[in-house]
Amino acid sequence: MFEELKASIIAGDQEKATGLTTKMLNDGIGPQKILKEGLVPGMDVVGEKFRSYEMWLPEVILSAKAMKASTELLKPYWDQNGGGETLGKIVIATVEGDVHDIGKNLVSMMLESAGFEMTDLGVNVKIQAIIDAANRVDADLIGLSALLTTTMLAMKSAIKAIRGSGSKAKVMVGGSPITQEYASEIESDGFAPDALRAITLAKKLVGKS
Amino acid sequence: MKLEAYTLTGGLTPDQIGLMRDKAIELVETVGLQIPHEGLLNRLQGINGVSIDKATQIVKFRSDLIIKAIQEIKYPLPDYYEDGWVISAGAHQTKIVDMDTGKIRETTLKDLIEMIKIGDALDTVGSASVVPMEVPIQLQEIIMHKVAWENSRRRANDMFEHDPKPTVRSTEYIYEMSKVANKWFALGLYMISPRSFDVVELEIIDKFLDRGVPMWAGTMPIMGINAPITEKAGILQAMFETYACLTMLNLLNTKSYNYIQIIDSFIAHPFDMKYSTFVYGSAEDVRGTLDKLSIHKHLKMPLAAKSLLTAAKEPDAQTAAEVGMYTLMAALAGAKEFRCGGLLTSAEVYSAEKLVLDYEIVQYIKHTLQPEEFSDEMLGFDAIAKIKPGESFLEHPATFKYYRTLYWDPNIFLQSNLGQWQELGSKSLVQYANERAKKLLAEHKYEIEPEKRRELDKIYEVAAKDEALAKERQF
Q: What domains lie within chain A, and their CATH numbers?
């Protein structure tokens, strides 16, 4: 049944994935086992297939939706079974001055489907609001997005402010104008060129790759 | 409802084409051409409307014979022609860009087999790509046909080929092979501008007149060299020579049909007086092709363009600019077949990478010009009206219906972002083309039926031992 659940996630078949998840929970299978042996392996395959350009964005979104819906079904059982472990907590935002959110939203959705707990602050977010949210949720990671060459400059001061605030959160950056060189130059902890690669990076940064 | 296809306007008018045609017919009737072959002159002797000057071997045809020959042209078009976007790979090259070292070197039998296979994987038509230089000269054209037939579906197998048949004896072997392999066979007659023929080609025609094989007329005048320097005069000379040649074939080759070769028909090629070189892919070459296409369209002839030619020395910006612009213009002018894929430096060098790039460029243009549907669904009024601020169309039914099929998915013109490209090794386009060529070669499957291959092998063995064949080629 785990293989079937994994296949339903890969296929983006939300109805089947939630049906199987419900059945497994009713059969007394623990939520951690369902997550680790069915859902997460399915999303891992999706990530690989996206990286090799075998799966395309709409298909990945369907898989992520199926994953999210199934994970939601697990939540009520987490407390009874030792709590729901996430890969980590991430605060994500498009930096101040930039109102573009398509890329940031995709990254947020993918990270959530991969097992991260997401706090999405939206677009045009002031640095202090990002720091406050990171402190509030005790974030492991902060994701900063920018689409414009003018607004990407805000990332540099944002990182400086985050470091200065004493936050333990690592900072990952992304967006169309960002390069690895720029990401290094502004002393971010990592850069990913697309949403699926952001998962790999985030896992690496929280030590769960 | 489909949107109207994009087209090119301008160029020669129907009246101007008609005038050129009339002038060409007048030249055939009043000036004539030289036929330096006694046997053919004897065959033409006595035909009503043919006048022969034995001393100069100049033959003139009365206009009604010319018009009859034009009216009786038959084009054996392959099924796939009507859909268009046919790519013909370049042919008969003796130099190649080595796929492993990137260096230019002499072509071999191994190259011939590999280039035919890669070309087949890309659905190309046309003649054999390269000459196996280590094979004895008298066997080269024979094995080029053999390899093309053994390893491809379309190469040397329809009217888009124009393989040379250099001697009577080698033509006999190729003819025999075509019959056992059930492949295409036609004989071409290229005129030697101005107004004459190669004697050996005439001899081959003479020997095959009773076999019932299709024959075609072609010519290739070079502006400023063996044709006047102006482009329209070059076309007029090409029309005159082609009509004269066609009329001769129509009178002599009565057991089959005859046609005007669509590749080098009503066109003259530019010559660069600065470098003393034959030049392809230049502005003048493009203009000549556009005129040729106008004439072909007006006369209801098939539409082909040698638009994959370039004077560039390697697959670079010049290649992209010349091939892209030339092919786009030709496509807008109605061309359905795009010729000379894989050729660099004005048809001096063959390159598998260039063929892969040509394929990509043709696909790019094809998808650009593809007539789109215009409908309520395509207009998407309801989708726009129903979306809420902040929502996306990523999960809209229309997105899921069309995301894999509506847009062109290039093979090597990567649309990835910088980071993704870097992750894949920051490779150049030519490296991608090289990898694709090697992959196509490794995965190529087609081969002729084993019994036919055995028959071809037997004929080739006989040819290889044929001393008369070797002697004929030396001559």
A: 2-81 (1.10.1240.10), 88-205 (3.40.50.280)
Q: Do A193 and B400 touch (CB under 8 A)?
A: no
**Cβ count within 10 A of residue A15:** 10
Q: Report yes or no on B414 lying in a domain.
A: no
Instruction: Give the range of the structural domain holding residue B150, as residue numbers without chain letter.
Output: 14-369
Residue B471 lies in a domain: no
Question: What's the complex ipTM?
Answer: 0.76
Nearest to B142 by CA among B181, B88, B190, B99: B181
The residue of chain B nearest to residue A59, with distances taken between CA atoms, is: B400
For residue B358, the 8-state DSSP code is H
B419–A61: do the CB atoms touch at under 8 Å? no
Report the chain A residue with the minimal C-alpha distance to residue B391.
A102
User: A56 vs B395: CB contact, 8 Å cut-off?
Assistant: no
- Tokens 């690669």, residue? A197
Q: What whole-number distance in Å separates Cα of residue B165 and Cα of residue B163?
A: 6
Across the 475 residues of chain B, what is the mean pLDDT of every consecutive 10-residue run?
92 96 98 97 97 97 98 95 95 96 97 98 97 95 97 95 86 97 95 94 96 95 95 97 98 97 92 90 94 96 96 94 98 97 96 98 96 92 92 89 94 91 93 98 97 98 92 67
Contact call for A193 and B420, based on CB within 8 A? yes
Q: Does B128 map to a domain? A: yes
DSSP annotation of B269: B
> Domain of B186: which CATH number?
3.20.20.480
